[in-house]
């Protein structure tokens, strides 16, 4: 299991993850468009990991 709480967007990439790993993305960052994103490269890692948490979701009150 990998828990990514680095505070930098997309710092964890697919080549750093063993096939079948569980990845928890607890980082909250903003991309160039201001949209929330996580510490992991979700698109790449979802091809390798068995389970991955989704990128943070912006909450509406």
Automatic annotation (TrEMBL):
It comes from the Bacteria. Residues 2-56 form the Tetrahydrofolate dehydrogenase/cyclohydrolase NAD(P)-binding domain. InterPro entries: NAD(P)-bd_dom_sf, THF_DH/CycHdrlase_NAD-bd_dom. It holds the Pfam family THF_DHG_CYH_C. It is an enzyme of class 3 (hydrolase). Its EC number is 3.5.4.9. This is methenyltetrahydrofolate cyclohydrolase.
């Amino acid at each position: 299991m990998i828990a990514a709480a680095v505070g930098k967007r997309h710092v964890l990439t697919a080549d750093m993850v063993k096939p079948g790993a569980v990845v928890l993305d607890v980082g909250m960052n903003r991309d160039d468009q201001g949209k929330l994103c996580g510490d992991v490269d979700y698109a790449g890692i979802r091809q390798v990991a068995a389970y991955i948490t989704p990128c943070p979701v912006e909450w509406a009150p």
